[in-house]
Write a structure and sequence with these properties.
Elements (H helix, E strand, L loop, with lengths): L2 E10 L10 E11 L5 E6 H7 L5 E12 L1 E7 L13 H14 L4 H17 L2 E8 L3 H14 L2 E8 L12 H15 L5 E7 L7 H13 L4 E6 L3 H10 L6 H6 L8 E5 L5 H10 L2 E4 L1 H6 L7 H7 L3 E3 L11 H13 L7 H8 L1 H6 L17 E4 L5 H8 L4 H11 L5 E6 L2 E5 L5
Helix pairs in contact: 3-4, 5-6, 12-13, 15-16
Bound molecules: zinc ion (ZN).
Length: about 425
């Protein structure tokens, strides 16, 4: 059935790093969605209501905010139970906390339970698209895809690949990795909301043969994504350059195996060289910034402005389990603080971009998601703070709707997500029976 959802609409018409007037907020707005879950139109509620067919259903969310579905562009499925592990930095944290937790996903029943819990948790907090490192165990990663398919989460994921470092059961040799990837690409290839991502953990945990396999697979199946980590800590960078002594820099390790390009997403990139930034931009690869993870592991302060100046597409991720929570919206507050420490201040529009339209562009999904443009999938969520007397009063004291949105980025909580829609279907919140 055709429906119109009423509330305060906020989204980006275009890239706010290039166009200052890109943010659009419509106080009494309406989002018109057809029976296929596609956006027909958006705008002033009175105008949209006059255009609706007579049998259209009106769903009025009052003063609540309607926002495009959030994109969490980097998190780790098998690290669900590692959040807030005591650590002495990235490499010891991997060894002491992460690898033991990831081994537990050998048990398919445990893995399926975590998959359900994680997917529900993301949807409940307005995340309609997630890019995830899957388990090294294929059955566990299949359980993740199945949970996403059942609940409507748009998912880009793949088995985490490593054949060096770490305990033996977590390692996959290149031939097996190819076979698993091929099987999963074929199994989920016809579902428009599911995509496979080759997922070499990072340069240190991969042999040249495994990285070569990823490059060859990509040439054979150009629709697949590739995700990995880069330039997270200085200790890690030094170790990578020792392991790959011929490489010009960290990025060059990936470049020489053909792993860069559109649909490549590199997490962190906190300490890039100038030549790496240029190579990144030229290749069309994207970077995912993970603010709370960077702070928790003490990895460094992300150079956001340098990425923007080089035209590198950017997204934001929670990086669970190095990140401390499951709500990517909260990352915007952390992102703001990290930039303030460097004397910068992203605008509210630029922050919103990183988890909506900008993230969609970074994932080559801008034709499908990211804002309320007609024809796109109706992936959106409803933020309602009416039950919070302090926040309600705080918002009433704002000078503008843009100021209100800024306050919400810092003070809203995931339980204030009242409803979530994926392709027009309610998939969490009040509209769904528990
Ligand atoms: Zn990560």
């Amino acid at each position: 059935m055709t429906r119109a959802y009423l509330g305060t609409l906020a989204h980006l018409r275009r890239d706010p790093f290039q166009y200052p007037g890109a943010l659009e907020i419509i106080e009494r707005g309406a989002l018109w969605v057809d029976e296929r879950g596609r956006i027909v139109a958006f705008g002033d509620a009175g105008r949209i209501r006059r255009q609706l067919p007579p049998d259209a259903e009106i769903v009025d969310f009052g003063r609540a905010w309607l926002l495009p579905g959030l994109v969490d562009a980097h998190l780790h499925f098998p690290q669900y139970h590692v959040v807030a592990a005591a650590n002495r930095g990235l490499l010891s944290w991997l060894r002491d906390s992460v690898y033991p937790a990831e081994l537990a996903f050998r048990d398919p029943r445990y893995a399926a339970g975590v998959a359900d819990a994680l997917v529900s948790r993301l949807l409940r907090s307005g995340v309609t698209t997630a890019v995830m490192f899957g388990s090294q165990f294929p059955e566990a990663t299949e359980a993740l895809f199945e949970a996403a398919r059942r609940r409507g989460l748009r998912l880009i994921a793949g088995i985490t690949l490593m054949d060096r470092d770490g305990p033996e059961p977590l390692r996959t040799d290149p031939e097996t990795a190819w076979r698993i990837a091929e099987r999963l690409v074929q199994r989920y290839g016809d579902d428009p909301r599911l995509r496979y991502a080759l997922t070499p953990r990072f340069a240190l945990s991969c042999s040249p043969e495994l990285l070569r396999m990823c490059g060859e697979f990509r040439r054979r199946y150009p629709q697949v994504y590739l995700q990995t980590h880069i330039n997270e800590t200085r200790e890690e960078i030094a170790a990578v350059l020792r392991a790959f002594p011929d490489a010009l820099h960290y990025l060059d390790v990936y470049d020489r195996f053909g792993l860069l390009g559109r649909r490549t997403l590199l997490a962190h990139n906190i300490h890039p060289q100038g030549s790496e930034m240029r190579a990144l931009a030229e290749s069309g690869s994207s970077v995912c910034h993970c603010p709370s993870s960077n702070l928790f592991l003490g990895s460094g302060l992300f150079p956001l402005r340098r990425h923007v100046q080089h035209g590198v597409p950017l997204a934001v991720g929670t990086d669970v389990g190095a990140g401390l929570h499951f709500w990517v919206w909260e990352e915007l507050s952390e992102c703001h603080k990290i930039q303030r420490l460097q004397g910068e201040a992203p605008t509210v529009a630029q922050l919103l971009h990183l988890v909506t339209l900008g993230a969609a562009q970074a994932l080559a999904l801008e034709a499908e998601i990211g804002n309320f443009a007609p024809g796109k999938a109706a992936d959106f969520w409803v933020l309602d703070v009416a039950g919070d007397p302090y926040l309600d009063q705080r918002l009433r004291r704002c000078q503008s709707l843009e100021d209100q949105l800024f306050v919400l980025m810092h003070l809203a909580r995931p339980d204030q997500c009242r409803a979530v829609f994926a392709a027009g279907r309610p998939c969490a919140g009040e509209a769904v029976e528990s």
